[in-house]
Design goal:
Layout (H helix, E strand, L loop, with lengths): L1 E3 L4 E3 L17 H32 L6 E5 L4 E6 L5 E6 L10 H5 L9 E6 L2 E3 L2 H4 L7 E3 L20 H21 L6 E6 L1 H11 L7 E5 L19 H8 L5 E7 L7 H11 L5 E7 L12 H12 L2
Parallel strand pairs: 5-6, 5-9, 9-10, 10-11, 11-12
Antiparallel strand pairs: 1-2, 3-4, 4-6, 7-8
Length: 315
């Protein structure tokens, strides 16, 4: 394009290059890099770490597994993962707890039960509890052994041997574990035993008198007793025979949990029994906490319990 200044006329001449004029980019190379590099970094980060995150999230999300509920009897119930399972967890209920009481909790994200675990929930025989009789409650409730009129966990005013019912329940639980082991065709070390309250007491009782070594033991809000000692007595020393028996169980793994504020099974009753029986002879840990009283599903230590179970089940 040329300008004729004399005639004040603008004339246009076609140049040899007939292509369209190039549009100049409004952004400099530096500005483009400032925009592109962060976007590329984010995309690369997502490509690497998002699959890992989703896998870990799937592993930790217990709600993904669906469960089939099957109550075989008043005392016995199971929760079976539809996607299969590698381990068995047996839960022993406390006084008056039905076999399906914790089903919703066991299926929730708050549970301490890891995925790929089949749950057997078992309760004791229905009995009229002496402690409840003084309140004119004569309806039989599930329990592993009776409780006397003073609320003691071993029945001082029952007829005959204070530990008779506990011994009967012990043999029943041992037989049930054997049956589960055979029915499931699984090793004993893939079976984990836990229980709350009287069920926690029976968990300890099974450990002391077991015929085999299970994968782990989880007594919640219980304590340790042995029928070689008087009922409701704090055990602070062991016989040479008991020491020898416990030393033979040195590979047993125990994680106990108890509240400072537990009024039903007092903390001062529980702790000496644990440390007398287990501390020097077995792989033992005690989780202590406050705030709540005699409860299971609100215990603040449950995430630690779950991590311990996952590690134990993975061995």
């Amino acid at each position: 394009m040329e300008v004729n200044s004399e005639n004040n006329v603008i004339t246009v001449h076609q140049t040899e290059d007939s292509s369209e004029p190039k549009t100049k980019c409004p952004c400099s190379t530096k500005q483009l890099l400032i925009i592109i590099i962060p976007i590329a970094t984010v995309l690369l980060f997502c490509a690497i770490f998002l699959p890992i995150y989703l896998k870990n999230k799937d592993d930790d999300d217990d709600s993904i597994d669906e469960f089939k509920e099957q109550i075989d009897s008043y005392k016995y119930a199971t929760l079976t993962p539809k996607k299969g399972y590698n381990n068995i967890y047996i839960h022993l209920g406390g006084i008056s707890e039905t076999s399906d009481k914790y089903f919703d909790f066991f299926k929730s994200k708050s549970t301490y039960i890891p995925k790929k675990t089949k749950i057997y929930s078992i309760t004791g025989t229905a009995r009229v509890i002496k402690f409840m009789e003084k309140y004119e409650i004569t309806i039989p409730v599930p329990c592993w052994f009776n409780v006397d009129t003073s609320g003691n966990l071993i029945c001082d005013d029952c007829d005959g041997d204070d530990f008779k019912e506990a011994k009967e329940s012990l043999n029943e639980i041992l037989d049930i574990i054997d049956k589960i082991k055979n029915d499931e065709n699984i090793d004993y070390k893939k079976i984990f035993l836990g229980g709350f309250s009287q069920g926690g007491i029976m968990t300890n009782y099974v450990l002391l008198n077991s015929r085999y070594e299970l994968g782990g033991y989880l007594p919640f809000s219980g304590y340790v007793f042995d029928h070689n000692f008087p009922a409701n007595t704090l055990v602070t020393s062991l016989s040479d025979q008991q020491k020898e028996i416990l030393d033979s169980k040195k590979n047993y793994h125990i994680l106990a949990s108890h509240s400072f504020n537990d009024e039903t099974v007092p903390y001062p009753l529980s702790v000496p029994s644990y440390y007398t029986y287990y501390k020097e002879y077995t792989d033992f840990k005690l989780l202590s906490f406050g705030l709540i009283k005699h409860e299971l599903i609100t215990q603040p230590t449950l995430p630690i319990v779950k991590r311990w179970l996952k590690e134990s089940m993975g061995k």
